[in-house]
Design brief:
Layout: H1 2-16, H2 19-24, E1 35-38, E2 43-45, E3 59-62, H3 65-70, E4 74-75, H4 84-103, H5 110-117, H6 121-132, H7 136-153, H8 158-164, H9 170-181, H10 185-189, E5 196-204, E6 207-213, E7 218-224, H11 227-237, E8 242-245, H12 248-262, H13 278-288, E9 296-297, H14 298-304, H15 311-320, E10 332-333, H16 346-367
Parallel strand pairs: 2-4, 5-8, 9-10
Antiparallel strand pairs: 1-2, 1-3, 5-6, 6-7
Helix pairs in contact: 5-6, 7-8, 13-15, 14-15
Length: 368
């Protein structure tokens, strides 16, 4: 009965769109004429692909790999070599766009960037975000923030750092200073002076945990064996900040973060204060896209952010993450699947992954 239903469904799909017949036949002559994309997996395939056939109701057809990628799909691993030319072209134009943004005093308009890349604004925006993990505007802000941080860290005056980072007036910078630095630039330069950061140290199954929150959101989730050492790490980040021990209400925040550690599949519905270099933010955004219970290699994560060959830099960005579990760098492993390089210890990484896999397995079993 099920076989008959499947045959009927495929026949009806072929009647609706003749391209289905060529997919069913895995017709190599159709390669180049169109691709089909699968909504449930987020990938697209050439007609002759030997990938498992999807259900017709989950399929969309596109005239080219470019149009499928503009809609948010990525090439299947089996068909990846067929899209290598497209991927290489996209990598080149996005690299040029990144250089243009980095070298410009003012952010080029989306229309100008797209024209420079030879794409429509919509297509360029989708490809740029798919390659970098950031929108063009967010990438420009991250680069500008990186330059301001570097300027203030090098001992330049606030005014020098403002102009060197591409702001053409003090007023425009100060309007954006909270978004760029999370505080006034003079306070950032003074190591967090006049900035209040509330924090508390608690205990969880992985040992001691420090949770800190700035005015913008949770800015640190640190794990360790020594509570005093965790506090020192926070002090090192902003030595002049006003560190305030959390009150009873803050303990509720700590409890929610501890709940995330104990059950990562529940997620953390709290604003995060995330600031890093443009590259770090690309990595951290990609980390948050890894589903609970799954892992990727450093090389694969580098590929996902459009920077193949930068696995070592990806690992360094993971090590710079100060928001344990909320930004799940524990879900990145070596290419052979072995565990390595976790800021808070390999054993904690192992426990987190085992906990997530068990929860994911239980959820899958209950769904069936």
């Amino acid at each position: 009965m099920q076989v008959d239903q499947d045959v009927t469904r495929l026949r009806e799909a072929t009647e609706r769109d003749p391209r289905w017949a060529r997919v069913l036949a895995r017709d190599p002559a159709a390669d180049g004429a169109f691709v089909y994309a699968v909504r449930t997996t987020g990938v697209y395939c050439r007609p002759s692909s030997h990938s498992r056939l999807p259900r017709p109701e989950n399929v969309e057809f596109y005239d080219s790999p470019e149009s499928a990628e503009a809609a948010g799909y990525r090439p299947s691993r089996r068909d990846g070599p067929d899209s290598s030319a497209v991927s290489a072209r996209h990598a080149d134009v996005i690299a040029q766009a990144c250089r243009l943004i980095g070298e410009s005093d003012e952010l080029p308009s989306l229309a100008d960037l797209a024209a420079h890349a030879g794409m429509s604004p919509y297509h360029f925006h989708r490809v740029f975000k798919a390659r970098t993990g950031l929108t063009p505007k967010a990438y420009a802000e991250a680069r500008r923030r990186e330059r301001v941080h570097a300027g203030l860290g090098d001992g330049k005056s606030v005014t020098e750092a403002i102009y060197d980072s591409g702001f053409n007036s003090n007023g425009r910078f100060y309007e954006a200073s909270n978004r760029v630095l999370g505080m006034r630039p003079s306070d950032y330069k003074a190591g967090g002076k006049n900035t209040s950061i509330r924090f508390a140290v608690g205990e969880c199954s992985l040992g001691s945990i420090l949770v800190a929150r700035s005015q913008r959101g949770v800015c640190a989730i640190l794990l360790g064996d020594d509570p005093a050492e965790l506090v020192r790490q926070l002090e090192d980040k902003f030595p002049q900040a006003d560190l305030i021990g959390g009150d009873a209400d803050f303990e509720g925040l700590v409890a929610r973060v501890v709940g995330l550690v104990e059950a990562p599949q529940l997620g953390l519905d709290l604003p995060l204060d995330i600031r890093g270099t443009a590259f770090q933010e690309r990595v951290w955004r990609a980390l948050r896209d890894i589903p609970v219970g799954q892992t990727v290699s450093y090389a694969e994560l580098a590929r996902r952010i459009g920077a193949p060959g930068s696995a070592r830099a990806v690992a360094q960005a993971c090590g710079a993450n100060a928001l344990a579990v909320a930004i799940p760098c524990h879900r990145v492993v070596r290419s052979d699947g072995a565990l390595s390089g976790y800021r808070w210890g390999i054993e904690r990484k192992r426990v987190l992954l085992e906990r997530e896999r068990a929860a994911d397995g239980a959820a899958t079993a209950s769904a069936h």
